Amino acid sequence: MTHPLFSKHEDTLQKALAAIETRGYWSPFAEMPSPKVYGETANADGEAAFKALLNQTFELDQPTTGETVGAEVSPFGFPLGIRYPKADPDTLLAAAATAQASWRAAGPQAWAGVSLEILARVNRASFEIGYSAMHTTGQAFMMAFQAGGPHAQDRALEAVVYAWDQLRRIPADAHWEKPQGKNPPLAMHKRYTVVPRGTGLVLGCCTFPTWNGYPGLFADLATGNAVIVKPHPGAILPLAITVRIARDVLREAGFDPNVVTLLATNPNDGALVQDLALRPEIKLIDFTGSTQNGTWLERHAHQAQVYTEKAGVNQIVIDSAADIKAVARNIAFSLALYSGQMCTAPQNIYIPRDGIRTADGTLSFDAVAQALADAVQKLVADPARAVELLGAIQNDGVVQRIEEARTLGHVLVESQSLEHPAFAGARVRTPLVLQLDAAIDSAKFTKEWFGPISFVIATDSTAQSLELAGKLAAEHGALTLSVYSIDEAVIEAAHEASIRGGVALSINLTGGVFVNQSAAFSDFHGTGANPAANAALADAAFVANRFRVVQSRVHVEPKAAPVAVG
Amino acid sequence: MTHPLFSKHEDTLQKALAAIETRGYWSPFAEMPSPKVYGETANADGEAAFKALLNQTFELDQPTTGETVGAEVSPFGFPLGIRYPKADPDTLLAAAATAQASWRAAGPQAWAGVSLEILARVNRASFEIGYSAMHTTGQAFMMAFQAGGPHAQDRALEAVVYAWDQLRRIPADAHWEKPQGKNPPLAMHKRYTVVPRGTGLVLGCCTFPTWNGYPGLFADLATGNAVIVKPHPGAILPLAITVRIARDVLREAGFDPNVVTLLATNPNDGALVQDLALRPEIKLIDFTGSTQNGTWLERHAHQAQVYTEKAGVNQIVIDSAADIKAVARNIAFSLALYSGQMCTAPQNIYIPRDGIRTADGTLSFDAVAQALADAVQKLVADPARAVELLGAIQNDGVVQRIEEARTLGHVLVESQSLEHPAFAGARVRTPLVLQLDAAIDSAKFTKEWFGPISFVIATDSTAQSLELAGKLAAEHGALTLSVYSIDEAVIEAAHEASIRGGVALSINLTGGVFVNQSAAFSDFHGTGANPAANAALADAAFVANRFRVVQSRVHVEPKAAPVAVG
């Protein structure tokens, strides 16, 4: 008896299974905000839907205290004025436990089918979610649409298909029959029941609330768990819309919608989160945020499986290049994209102090640094175009960090405020690029400076650059490592460094792919092999411990005859 | 370029893959100590090999301080007198790290092939290991042979095949090509390198050193890790022989044998183990033992993935029965087998105080209790036969526990010392069975009384029995739950209780299968869903986080042409 939503989406699931096996390019969700795909009025409708949410109480039919919370402010310069129903954690935990009982019993096909139906509906809301992501994270619209919409949906589907790939291997039952020589065989019927952990807690971040929040949410759902979604207080809306859609789908499919609930909070909700994270009912936690908070969860929430993505120091090693301008253009884009507020954005750029080889002969360290500086400056020279790349700074902490960083060394590129042509109050800053020296500045560059802050670092040699890159990644965490070299031996050495550092390597990116980008179904985001994350998006380990199997066995009649002896 | 040992054992691996998919009966290792399978002189040779090890220094070509350790005493009444090379943990950690580098680079096929070759050789040593297991654990020979030999080898192979099943899904490389409309596609070549965690630590127990130790050891090896095997000081020999074989195979296959090393210790090695378990080099820990030690590891060894099997309270619910004598015979066997020193042995037997339904009408509580008592007494009435079932008590702690338990309530069956006909000094005790009442004695029966100690507990009803069973399993842990009923509704209720308790259920066992038994490739041993274990033997979750994947990506020429537009 196949669940109808499973049948409806089975083709997508099959294609996704093939995609995670071959890891080539694949996506069922169109990344371009094209009227042909999403509908002629989709953009206007989505923007209108977003605007209609402003200065209202967000409607969500779930247990509430009757009060409201919420204080989101758009990084583009205006308060959203949205109030969310306040929920009591105890009430949500009880509601989740109640809802989980029948959800658990529905089984793997229903979990996959409902998850995929939620995703299909979320996809149709991509513009509304895109504008919501834009005005909570500060991403420019195109990025907010893509990263907050289809790319996040890809990562969600990836989590669902990994879950399904594991669940489908567990047979519902088995006939076990052990020969006993001349005696009749021992025969048993065995039943295997997939038992979800219970209730999961998803702790969202303020820069990629959906992209980083969906994998845990959908991995939990697809393995039969209930989920409490606790967004970052600064970026509630994209997840609130998602929760509303999830609840609609659950309700329509005949389930208790409290399988998914929203715990919206006011800023400074740390104590509330810590209390909730240690509750015995919480069996799964997915967290994206600071190393401090993530490590606290890993070390204290012993009752739960804890999946974290934390801070890291992403690095670029420049050894040699055919075309330094192409290198510089690509790196500058990576530094500027969403003002470096990506967990994958590069920070440390290592260049040998004696310069590098290029097709046109040796280029001095200063010349390489200047090429990078020029490329950054060129990219942000036109404010109207620049803001579509930079977006806005998510919060004042990042602005303060730029101020603090600018005293660390020689400034190669100064960070500037830009006026946004459409949003007068937008908090826009261009990248700050500093020059440091590996010999004396390691205390400065061995920590994350989250935001549009990067360091061009002089090293003794490429060998030292790679040594540093591997060591920093292993000790302080990293999500990306990038190398530029025309020397195969250096590229192999970079592979070795990436393995030592447990960090994904990009090689000679000079075209339309940037180190910040991570493609679902093909690129593992994070490795779980260094302190930046204890899990990867997504793999078997990300899903296989979100459920357990409980079996039974009972004697039945054997099918085979005793073995004739003698 | 397939590794020759992978080719050699590929057929076994394919059969094992099929087995974990269908979970029917399968085993490549003959469980009967038959001369036809193992060779006419295998038993005598194995016993001679064991005896030749006594009162000698165990030869093991690995880093040592030059000193020796070891104080094993056979539960059958004589000191083994075996001294093992003492190893310094720092030296072993360094040797493991060195050895791991080339082992890592060998890749998944080599890891699987070498693991399977080790197992094939271990299988040939089953008699030697069987006698070693007998004289360290106290198991009677047949059980020591089976559980210490082929059944342990089955569990090891199961871990290898689960590892391989996950590893084979990760492609070595991929071609990723993303259409760009009228522009040329973006094309990249991606490389995926499986990166093992590093060094694992296997902490053995004194009752099933190989059966419980092999899964972690072989899961680590099959995912490319180095392993330090730290046996329980009371049961070093079976693992020492295993390590020696593993090192031989590694050396012959061209690897540094320090991929597997032995850390033999004297009794009371707790401080040494705690120090080692927190070392940053230790990335994986597999532990079988007390709840106290297991929980300590889970809460302190944050640098490692920790897999534990701890204490639990196994339970039997008797609701009704067609043939109470068959029920009693089966239960009595489970209580007597290896003197209840199995993590799967039942302890709490719940019977309604108003009696049970049988084919011959209602049987009073006292009559059921008496039937159980009679069956136990009958089973141990003949000492010469009894000792082949009971084996010997592993350590004096168990004897003292019997003394302590005997004061807890009305004694239904008294525990007795038996003379072993072959071993004058053997520490043999028959099962102690007490009568308790659920209404007043819960403090007594909600903890594990490891050893030949069981409680027949009067409850208000089967509903209360099942309520207790689910609750105890969930709160205090359990590896087994057994129900006897002729009522389908009760059996379904038992399923629900087993799911609430996260514990495997056996139904109406009255024949040749006993609740203590757990068959590799078919029965999950432990669920990871209650406090008795945080993992199951074996499943995807047991292996998927013992390695990570590190990728690289580089642009290549696209294969497809741009899409014609217009």
From TrEMBL, chains A, B:
Family matches, as Gene3D superfamilies: Aldehyde Dehydrogenase, Chain A, domain 1 (3.40.605.10), Aldehyde Dehydrogenase, Chain A, domain 2 (3.40.309.10)
InterPro entries for the chain: Ald_DH/histidinol_DH, Ald_DH_C, Ald_DH_N, Aldehyde_DH_dom, PaaN_2, Proline_metab_enzyme
Domain Aldehyde dehydrogenase residues, every copy = 86-503
The superkingdom listed in its UniProt entry is Bacteria
Which key words tag this protein in UniProt? NAD, Oxidoreductase
> GO biological process: any one?
L-proline catabolic process to L-glutamate
Task: State a GO cellular component annotated for this protein.
Answer: cytoplasmic side of plasma membrane
A molecular function (GO) term: L-glutamate gamma-semialdehyde dehydrogenase activity
Key word Glycoprotein present: no
Determine if Protein biosynthesis is one of this entry's keywords. no
Q: What is this protein called?
A: Phenylacetic acid degradation protein paaN
Species this protein is from? Paraburkholderia phenazinium
